[in-house]
């Protein structure tokens, strides 16, 4: 059965077009995905991310449990800060990429992708079983609302009393919005400044309304999953199922930095990841730019001359830059910026050039 966000009726009232995403009925766009994309780059967008999973770890050994379960050193994260990390299999393959918030000395919040929610919850429970910690899936109780874009500090600042000037990127603070307790995080997936609000699912419609009203003078518009995808692609951010999978380790994705071999706790996948680090990846993730209006799409072949050398993982006509952009896995020998390759776009070969990621920086 398809799940519905606590904000489903709100989206219906706004005329949203829905799509099935990881078993959830979520708004893909409201009016125009290009207009929504532009609003986030120039003003602000309001997103419903309630399909994401929230899993809490509490107890004296929560930090050690996460150091064992994930590739990062979560014990080194200060209270009030967050870190991007990954859950890997024994083989080193990525089961999910995550954001982990340290809410207190003995309390963490792990935020997982909707499609991997059950896998992550089960893996965390299993890997934490030998530690003095409790793993609780809070996903059904929590709604997640994001305000992203250059005007987001003015909008969020108008509805809460948190000191936003002191709230750094990848940090969080408890605050109140409309009298309701909220975890406010300065995180996001768009390449812009922005905030994510973890709220009680029952009050999500009220908080959405308060934010929408506060955002009116600042050009805030509701924004769907379609523009979220083009925004994250421009920012060079990986999407699980496209750039990340169980077939790939963090090293192929250029994210080897998130793997911390120097921590005291042994962690799942350590041996396989050390082998991959030492051997070097056979395929690496690169950015590609093209000309014209025909965009490479997921699954299209990347060519060096007439030889297939890789595959597009994500691609689109960039609304901000005005030309085709894509990410793809190619051999390391073809990964230097400036390398000339091509893509088979439905039988027509189009030239592309390797570029450094991200495509866009604010």
UniProtKB/TrEMBL annotation:
One GO MF term attached to the UniProt entry: aminomethyltransferase activity
Catalytic activity: N(6)-[(R)-S(8)-aminomethyldihydrolipoyl]-L-lysyl-[protein] + (6S)-5,6,7,8-tetrahydrofolate = N(6)-[(R)-dihydrolipoyl]-L-lysyl-[protein] + (6R)-5,10-methylene-5,6,7,8-tetrahydrofolate + NH4(+)
Pfam families to which the protein is assigned, alphabetical: GCV_T, GCV_T_C
GO cellular component: cytosol; glycine cleavage complex
Entry similarity comment: Belongs to the GcvT family.
EC top class named in words: transferase
Annotated InterPro entries: GcvT, GcvT/YgfZ/DmdA, GcvT/YgfZ_C, GcvT_bac, GcvT_C, GCVT_N, TrmE/GcvT-like
Function: The glycine cleavage system catalyzes the degradation of glycine.
BP term (GO), one: glycine decarboxylation via glycine cleavage system
EC number: 2.1.2.10
Protein name: Aminomethyltransferase
Keyword set, alphabetical order: Aminotransferase, Transferase
Binding site for substrate: 196
Cross-referenced HAMAP family: GcvT
Organism: Amycolatopsis albispora
